[in-house]
Design a protein that fits this description.
Number of helices: 12
Radius of gyration: 20 Å
Order of helices and strands: HEHEEEHEHEEHEEHEEHEEHEHHEHH
Amino acid sequence: MEMERQTALVLGATGGIGGEVARQLRDAGWQVRALRRGGSLPMERKDGMDWVRGDAMNREDVLAAARGCSVIVHAVNPPGYRRWAELVLPMVDNTIAAARAQRATIVLPGTVYNYGPDAFPLVREDAPQNPLTRKGMVRVELEQRLRVASGDGCRVIVVRAGDFWGPRPGNSWFSQGLVKPGQAVKVVNLPGSRGVGHLWSYLPDVACTMVELLQRRESLEPFAVFHMAGHWDADGTQLAQAISRVVIRYGGAQPALRAFPWWLTALAAPFMVTLRELREMRYLWQVPLAMDNGKLLAVLGHEPHTPLDQAMTATLEGMGCLSTAPPALASPAD
């Protein structure tokens, strides 16, 4: 019975946050079951996890994969920001059905899309959710469905963080906008308006927070929401400066810093769905938006927080952006 209580199903385990949570749960002693589309076998043991073939859009697949699980990590999203209106809510409904059947806890990586300017600049968990975008309205409805489900057979933990970055960032602004995976860093694009702060969250820190909250899940309210303070980039250049420091430390040349070409996304948006969807979220780069982590500190006593340069070194190494060995005297600093 104890073994069953320590089994978690991760939806979206091939993505950035889902993969990081899956690995950290595994390392913390959990049995991890990861749902993925494709693959040649119904179940495959790999990297210390059980990979199950299935589709998050197929309720029977999710119900079968969740059997015996006490936790379901819902970290699945449509690729490239596409088809949110069609896919996001049916997927979470399947997760809810599985969680009800197992009386499991659902863990959701939350987004800041839920909020509009009336909640800025410092957002608390109880701030009004009046989003400006279609994706934001979908996320509000998603969380509302989870809130209803938390009163009917399952628990929910929402961990809301800023833009993700890390060694395996998946589809993220960091890996798609700031730098290019697999290439030496010669240019860093700055999406934000000059002098405007931006919230970033290091994926291993977010995953660690989720794992620590799961250890306390029985003592939390049925629908528990927590905000992370993450790495606050006060003027929109501090992450770029950290990238530069790490690149130089590894023997590279000073990268050029340049404004992200939003004008190009405007031209291409009619022809490229992903760019059109990214452009819809531009307002988040034009105003400062930080999050109050007081509730998280009250429960955990701390927020997992890797020093900036240490996290940036691991990120650029993991993304294949550093081609030389680090100097012997390298010393990470925040």
